[in-house]
Write a structure and sequence with these properties.
By secondary structure, the protein is mainly alpha-helical. Helices cover 83% and strands 0% of the residues. The protein has one domain. Helix 8 crosses helix 10.
Length: 249
């Protein structure tokens, strides 16, 4: 790894940590950066997932005020997320790496579409959230678990999917739901990372660089994220994602 690549990976980690704390989909930046730098997709995905765990913890801590009073909710939702995350991680390891190379192209495309549509999706969620319930229903648990499978397998745009589900099915302030989203997505990354560490090769240089950047980015996102221009953030994600697609194709 050259010094230039190390700097690029660190900056990508900081950007991902910031965006993940604010909305989600920041992992597209780190994964796409690694692929663009020439790392194999599965190794890039595994190392990226592990590296973003400290950033997820940092982002959740930054939203600690919004998380007050949500212990009972998280106690119901976390098992679904963790079970889904473990399932997704196992699928990544069990399925041939050639499958991932094909599937990830489709997943990146879906993720980029979600990023582009995020403003309209958020507006739709705000309109629908007033009709939501304060109860944790089986359908919500199933959707959270399915999102966990997606997050354990790949993870990009997991946060956008989660906030949409929570916003539609739970009646609460969106900033509080964003705090919930940070905890659930972080749990998925954590359990998937444990599976990866125990079962496959990890590039620890990448992990350390992404983790260091993501921790800083998580605090920046929680503190200043609401002031950032969302159009600029989406533009960065889309550009980096398109570069990764070009590399994979």
């Amino acid at each position: 790894m050259t010094p230039e690549h190390a700097i690029i990976i660190f900056v990508a980690g900081a950007a991902a940590g910031t965006i993940n704390a604010v909305a989600g989909s920041g992992s597209i930046i780190t994964f796409s950066t690694l692929v663009a730098l020439g790392y194999p997709p599965v190794l890039a995905n595994v190392s990226n997932n592990i590296g973003l765990v400290p950033g997820a913890v940092s982002g959740a801590y930054g939203y600690r005020r919004e998380l007050r009073g949500q212990r009972a909710r998280l106690q119901r939702l976390l098992p679904a997320s963790t079970l889904g995350g473990i399932t997704g991680a196992v699928l990544l390891l069990v399925l041939p790496s050639s499958y991932f190379k094909r599937i990830v192209i489709v997943l990146i495309m879906i993720s980029l579409v979600l990023v582009i549509l995020q403003p309209r999706l958020s507006a739709w969620v705000r309109r629908r959230s007033t009709g939501g319930s304060t109860e944790i229903r089986p359908a919500l648990l199933l959707l959270v678990a399915a999102t966990g499978v997606y997050g354990g397998y790949f993870g990009a745009a997991q946060g956008i999917i989660l906030i949409a589900i929570l916003g539609v099915m739970i009646h609460d302030d969106l900033q509080r739901l964003n705090g919930t989203k940070n905890v659930l997505a972080g749990a998925v990354n954590l359990v998937a990372s444990i599976v990866f560490i125990l079962s496959t090769n990890v590039d620890w240089k990448i992990v350390v660089l992404i983790a260091a950047g993501a921790v800083i980015g998580g605090q920046l996102g929680a503190t200043y994220g609401r002031r950032l221009d969302p159009r600029a953030l989406r533009g960065v994600i889309v550009i980096v994602g398109l570069v990764a697609l070009a590399r994979l194709l």
